[in-house]
Amino acid sequence: MARSTLARRDALRLLGAAGAAAALSACGVKGQGRRAEAGRDDVREFWSGRSGTGELSWANWPGYMQDDHRTIKAFEKETGITVSYKEVIQETGPWFGKIQAPLAAGQSIGFDLMVMTNGIQLEKCRRLGYLAPLDRSRLPNVAAHAGAAFRNPSYDPGNAFTVPYESGITGIAYNTKYVKEEITSIAQLFDPKYKGRVGMMGDSQELGSFGMFLIGVDPERSTPADWDRAAARLREQRDRGIVRKYYTQDYVDAVSKGEVWLTMAWSGDVYSLAGPDVRFVVPREGGTLWTDNLCIPRTAENPVDALTLMNWLYVPANNAPLTEFVNYITPVPATRQIIVADAARATGEARADLTRLSTSPLVFPSEGDLARLRHYRRLTQAEEVRYQRTFEPIAKGS
Question: Which of 176, 165, 161, 369 is nearest to 277 (CA)?
């Protein structure tokens, strides 16, 4: 997980508007804008006549790169491309607000590459034509090394505009000091015997998705009628006093200290921050997989160099040092063998840390684990208003 985990997760709460003992359980719209779907002609038109300039500017979240920028320095040394790297994305909503006006006017935002989480803001960028269509012929390493779960995502069919950078899972964390049964189901978050000891997320897309999992609906394929049914169950859970609090990211301390006994949780938080009594599971009904994506603004001044960096990051040997620092789910599963080899060469605490990383299902989930995960519902502009009106009031008590 990124070193600034709390800031990172606190930022993710806007998606709807915006040492752990961990194990994964074995339980179980089409765009509306002119450039919403990238065709061959659009790709050809954008990339025709473009060549590298030897430099690029990259906007990212805090904590998503080694403090010494080791990965960037390795890229610069190998390619000769100079990278200006800035951790300027603190929250998804404000970042979109900052870049929307210049992109709408066809002006540069000062960055050739940016990292955006799948969700409402990324969908707006895609739908409004703010993103450059990717030339897949220049991304052979992505084709060769991307894991199956990171190809052709529902939020960007065919990876037309994005490639994954890092991912995480939304599941359930519980404290085994207080919960004496094995937690395997979202239904257990609704059990009256845990009244006042359950944590839920306040983010409308996370909360709504778990409500839909509960009623047996895939969030990605859900309808407004499904949203209403899920919201009714979530309101019932709230009104019966089962939920202690709706959290942004401060659930980590709460579940570690026993203020809540079980809670919705992000896998990376549990891996890096929770105490040894806390376990993490993907419930049998399913969980959500969120992904932070590399994408190129359509007005980028150095898009070829940005595409070169995208492709370079998908070489397993190049990706491994980043994964060893970030501790989130890498889209390049072949990095695992490299981390295993690094662990074998290491000694002491470093060896233990790398061994734990290479064997963690929170960082390297199995294909079976990933098959139970779903993305957030891809919302049109009209659906976004309806969805928010359905789920936002629940956490606010209205």
Answer: 176
Nearest to 58 by CA among 43, 77, 76: 76
Cβ burial, residue 344 (10 Å; 0-12/13-18/19+): exposed
Residues with Cβ < 8 Å from 150, sequence gap 6 or more? Answer: 163, 164, 167, 291, 331
Extended beta strands in the chain, E state: 55-59, 82-86, 113-117, 162-175, 198-201, 243-247, 262-266, 278-281, 287-295, 373-374
**pTM given for the model:** 0.80
The tens-digit pLDDT sequence of the chain (398 residues) is: 333 344 443 343 333 333 333 334 333 323 334 445 667 789 999 999 999 999 999 999 998 999 999 999 999 999 999 999 999 998 788 899 999 999 999 999 999 999 999 988 999 999 999 999 999 999 999 999 999 889 999 899 999 999 999 999 999 999 999 999 999 999 999 999 999 999 999 988 899 999 999 999 999 999 999 999 999 999 999 999 999 999 977 898 999 999 999 999 988 888 876 568 999 999 999 999 999 999 999 999 999 999 999 999 999 999 999 999 998 899 999 999 999 999 999 999 999 999 999 999 889 988 777 888 998 888 888 898 999 999 999 999 87
| Rounded distance between C-alpha atoms, residue 253 and residue 259, angstroms | 8
